[in-house]
Amino acid sequence: MFDILVAGEINPDLVLSGNVEPTFDQVEKLVDSAVITIGSSSAIFACGAARLGLKVAFIGVCGDDIFGRFMLDEMSKRDVNVENVLCIPGGATGFGVTLTRGADRAILTYPGLISALKAGDLSDGLLRQARHLHVASYFLQTALQPGLPGLFERAHALGLTTSLDTNYDPTGQWLGLDILLTHTDIFMPNEIEACSLARTKDIDLAVDRLAGRLETLVVKLGAKGALAVRGRQKFTADPIPVNVVDTVGAGDGFDAGFMYGYLNGWPLEKMLKMAVVCGALSTRSAGGTPAQATLEETRQYDIG
Question: How do the domains of the chain map onto residue ranges?
Fold first, then answer.
């Protein structure tokens, strides 16, 4: 049995760090560091949850190529079960290039097979092996989108809880979630995503518009911490001090921390504090997974 089944995208990231901005006309600039690491919001979340001690299984689609094999090997090393990943001979695994500059970053993504996973790829037999179903990068997983409300409904019928982190919408449309959110137990957008979905620039108004449609709404506020709403409960959590090297995957580490608390039956305020700590600690090195928090590290902070 698994604590979490993650249905998501698979791609490595080339993370470049430096105080530079790309310029065309064949201008060459130097960066300070470069690393190839586990990419994709879903995979980074899966590794973060496993590092905290949760039993995690992953299903997605990749090619039988160097990038796909890299991802499967690295996820397996981090105790994520990848036996259900669909590896397509001749297929092209997606790939991301991220340029980080301080706390900001620019991202270029080649989709490849990122969008190929379908709701029908998740059988009832697979769902029955897990307690919880998590989906991230909704707007990149275009083949999954049409069947996702039904998948979440099917998961609920089989006794699973569900969570969603949409990530950014490259089209800028922010459409298609009305029905899905009614089947989502935990929704974990960041401030920009929450405001975009609620069609407002006011985060308080965005929270009011979204919270009533869900069991639990959790909003990541970056350097301002985070907030969580469940019914009449509303909590905020301040950020912790940390030497930020790279913010890639911080939101996914945050999600992993929150889900650890959720699946262990913690109070909402404690879950939120745990999430903030995990998100912050993940920024200590380049890439989304190398600095992900262990359970022992989180105990050094006043989580409650």
Answer: 2-21+33-292
